[in-house]
């Protein structure tokens, strides 16, 4: 098969399209012929060598943890899926990648709605799982008010929609040029950065029940003040969280219950017209370096995705 790989750590330029051995599904897994694969922050950290997990990687390595495609092989002990089904999901996270390729093995998946574009499906998996896990940890109940700090990005925009579908009033922080975008996702937008309490007062927001920090930009003290309780705040990105008594959610790495049940739930919401996966940009597989470079440019609106077909030349 063909795949994007890197054989040394560094910038996006270390990525290249090459041949690789096609994976085979283990028990409980399926293999798909990939149509689209997401580019996630974990991919950037592993490729650059900046994360301690990079030390676990045998090189060369195929990045990518999200993929969507057509099922072409099924492992033992798998029910509810057949060859030819259209699915989206997440690779075995113990492998830390493998999706940016012609074929990928999925550990968690759901059936893709017929009308969901491949680009959205390919970028959906970890964003849905992560957002679902964080919302579950917050113990949200209908009628609560939730602040999502960093609401316009790949995970934040998904968390906003899944929270709204639970009957939560969502207030999302973002740059001014993303406010109309958040309105479309059923969130009340507010400016990003220090002084959040004053801006919420101006919106006549008298109570914040829970807060989710996606940005990791140092907002935890303000979010604790808003909710009145460190236990009412969860962060996905601020590693100073233990200093404040705030839960840092790291998923499988921390032994937390995962949010895989969110995958079929989000698919159903998409079918009902209540959910979308915002896409910032899509690149063909041979332009993976450009995709990683775009993803590293910081604040963005939605996800970066690679498209995969049979015409890629190595």
Task: Characterise the protein shown here.
The chain is globular and about 55 Å long. The chain has 314 residues and is α/β, with parallel strands linked by helices. Helix 3 (125-137) crosses helix 4. Strands 3, 4, 5, 6, 7, 14 and 15 form a seven-stranded mixed β-sheet that branches. It has a six-stranded parallel β-sheet with strand order 10-9-8-11-12-13, with helices on both faces. Strands 1-2 form a two-stranded antiparallel ribbon. 48% of the residues are buried. It folds into two domains: 2-124 and 277-307, Alpha-Beta Complex (Quinone Oxidoreductase, Chain A, domain 1), CATH 3.90.180; 130-254, NAD(P)-binding Rossmann-like Domain (Rossmann fold, 3-Layer(aba) Sandwich). It starts with a strand and ends in a 7-residue tail after the last strand. The longest helix has 13 residues, at 125-137. The protein has helices at 41-48, 118-122, 125-137, 154-165, 179-184, 196-202, 220-227, 241-244, 262-271, 288-295; strands at residues 2-5, 16-19, 30-39, 66-74, 86-90, 103-106, 108-111, 145-149, 169-174, 188-191, 210-213, 233-235, 247-248, 279-284, 303-307.
